[in-house]
Amino acid sequence: MKIDSEAFRVPPGKEFKLGDRPTIVKPFYQSKKDYQALLKDHVAELSDLQQLHYASNRYALLLIFQGMDSAGKDGAIRHVMSGVDPAGCEVSSFKQPSAEELEHDFLWRTNCRLPQRGRIGIFNRSYYEEVLVVRVHPEILRSQGLPQELLDEKNIWEERYRSIV
Asked: How far is it, in rounded angstroms, from Cα 58 to Cα 20?
C-alpha cells in the first residue's frame, strides 16, 4: 500500500497544468478501525526512522505544508507527525511578516528556521507566500522597504522564483 508519488511529482523545468494532477488519493482503509491500525503501524515506523535520522546527524528534513486558510494544514501536521518525538522536530508557522522580518530579504525568516542536521523542520506555510499572496496583494510588496529599482514588478517575480529554486 503505497502512494504513487510520481503522479504528484513535476520534473524540474517541465510545465504542467494543475488541473491534470490528482488531488485525491484513494483511501487505503475500509473502516475507522482499519485506519487506526494502519496509523499505529505508520506511527511506529516513523518513530523508528526519526531515531535513525537523529542518530546519523547527516541531513536535515524539511516538510512544507502549503495551503489556503482552513485547508487542513494543522490537522495534517498533527496526524502525520503524531509518531515523532517533539524534541527532534520544530514547527514554524508563517503569518504576516513582522516589522523585523520586513527589514530583511524575503527568504530571511524561513532561512532562520531551517532545521539542524538530524532534526525535522515543519513549515506551516513558507516562502511560497511571497509568490502567491504578495503577488496578489502588491501593497505588501511595497511595505517591504525595497529600493525603488527592485520594485519592478515585471522582474521581481522571476527573481524571487529563481531565489526559491
From this structure: 37
